Amino acid sequence: MDTTIKRNEDTMGKIIVIGGGAAGMIAAGRAAQRGLDVHLYEKNDRLGKKILITGKGRCNITNDTDIEGMLSNIPGNPYFLYSAFYTLDSKGVQDFFAELGLQTKVERGNRVFPVSDKAADVVSALEKYLQKNRVHVHLSSPVEEILHENGKVRGVRLKNGKEVLADGVILCTGGLSYPGTGSTGDGHKMAKAAGHTITKLYPSLVPLRVKEKWCSDLMGLSLKNSAIVIKDKKGKVVYKDFGEMLFTHFGVSGPMILSASRHLVKQLEKEEYTLWIDLKPAMEESQLDARVLRDFEKYANKDFKNALDDLLPQKIIPVIWELSGILPEKKVNSITKEERKKLVHLLKNLPLHILGVTGYHEAVVTSGGIDVDEVNPSTMESKRIENLHFAGELLDVDAYTGGFNLQIAFSTGFTAGEHILETEKG
Fold first, then answer.
1. How distant, in Å, are the alpha carbons of 41, 334, 393 from that of 45?
2. Which residues pair with 354 in a beta bridge?
3. 73-112 b/e with 16+ CB inside 10 Å = b?
4. In 3D, which of 201, 236, 162 has the Cα closest to residue 368?
5. 168 - beta bridge partners?
6. What confidence tens digit (pLDDT) does each residue in 53-81 have?
7. Rounded to two decimals, what is the model's pTM?
8. Residue 338, C-beta contacts closer than 8 angstroms, at least 6 positions apart
9. Distance of alpha carbon 368 from alpha carbon 187, whole angstroms
10. What does residue 371 show for φ and ψ, rounded to 5 degrees?
11. 207-358 has which fold?
12. What is the pLDDT of residues 244-297, one digit of tens each?
């Protein structure tokens, strides 16, 4: 992908980009690179505020996979993104940052991070892109309304009442997740006022709250190689996964749980779900029984509470005593076959009853947004207002964890910047 500056000094159009996150910065830079006069308006006092907290401050930029791999990790309207991904795919994003001096590395699950492990370096690279292309950045400048007339955009009205006229507008204000970063639904309100449909919004990639109080005793315990199955009250499997999870004071979190939440949030108000944890997914139940039997023979004269140290993390052992129904002081050599079988089954099927999710303040992304049927997938232009484009989390598209959501932001943002005022530019 060519990111060298191609500027026509006689700019042929003024563009306003609303929102200085991942989608907004790359959209503004690309539009300016095409020779347009671009003004980026950001409500915060700095750019990229949400980027700084992604990936626990390391910023999972993208996922090193092909377009089909991307689409398979997007449960929310994946095929709308075909054109955007062909415009800028994962390799394109990695090349884009390399040309800006940011070196990246690929980790487990094909996750791509900056070599420095600093999200701030990603923001700095994007700011460099804006500076190179002479984008006018307006910080602490919230936009209140998109101005349009006779089906064509004509500018914006700032919160202070000032009207700024423009030939095109790109709206990239994000969703509702992490509202402390400025994602408070402003863009949805502006798009709705401009005549667009907003589908129902939900927090997604969000920790789960559970009924069981013993979770709080395990707070901070991470299970690196566990498996989960989530079933509805009829026993139908709605999600299954293998990987990492984390116990919290209110329930469970971690990569597996966040992805699972995407399949639950829309039904939690009317459906009951149970999460079953397999603590030993590498073994069939018969194999695990044989392993437990060996441990019991090894610790035959010890109390049950001291016989599980080779098998489980220390922190979870008291929970297993209690749920197994075996008294912790019971001698191992007096544990019956039935008790052992029940224990083994518990280790493969540890149940948690899901109460709900924690909310937008801990959600990685928003599920729902601007109805994609009202947006041209090839250009990100509104089908209702000419020269109004959208990008990023504001749209009704969302993905699992692993760098896919930032790839969506970069691809849709770049596509919007590439095509805005395309006719005028020829």
1. 10, 67, 21
2. 210, 273
3. bbebbbebbebbbebbbbebbbbbbeebebebeeeeeebb
4. 201
5. 15
6. 888 899 999 999 999 999 999 998 999 99
7. 0.89
8. none
9. 13
10. -60, 120
11. Helicase, Ruva Protein; domain 3 (1.10.8)
12. 999 999 999 999 999 999 989 888 878 899 999 999 999 999 999 999 999 999
Amino acid, res. 367: S
Helix (H, G, I), strand (E, B) or coil at 149: strand
Are the beta carbons of 51 and 61 closer than 8 angstroms? Answer: no
Token pair for 326: 């075996």
Q: What angle do CA 197, 364, 85 make, to 5 degrees?
A: 65
β-strand partners of 59:
none
CA 397/CA 77 separation, integer angstroms = 5
DSSP state of 199: P
Helical packing angle, 404-419 and 90-99, nearest 10°: 80
For residue 67, report the phi and psi dihedrals to the nearest 5 degrees.
-65, -40
Distance between CA atoms of residues 261 and 210, nearest Å: 12
CATH of 14-202+367-425, one of 3.40.50.80, 3.40.50.720, 3.50.50.60, 3.40.250.10: 3.50.50.60
34 in helix, strand or coil? coil
The domain limits of the chain are 14-202+367-425, 207-358
* Per-residue tokens: 127: 């700011």
Residue whose token pair is 């991307």:
70
Sorted by sequence, the CB contacts under 8 Å of residue 246 that are 6+ apart come out as 220, 221, 222, 223, 252, 253, 254, 257
The residues near 332 (Cβ < 8 Å, ≥ 6 apart) are 296, 299, 300, 301, 302, 303, 304, 307
Supply 155's token pair.
């500018």
Whether 382 contacts 391, CB under 8 Å:
no
**Element spanning 247, H or E:** strand 237-247
Give the number of other CB atoms < 10 A from CB of residue 328: 15
Contacts of 126 (CB under 8 A, 6+ apart): 22, 25, 26, 29, 47, 48, 51, 100
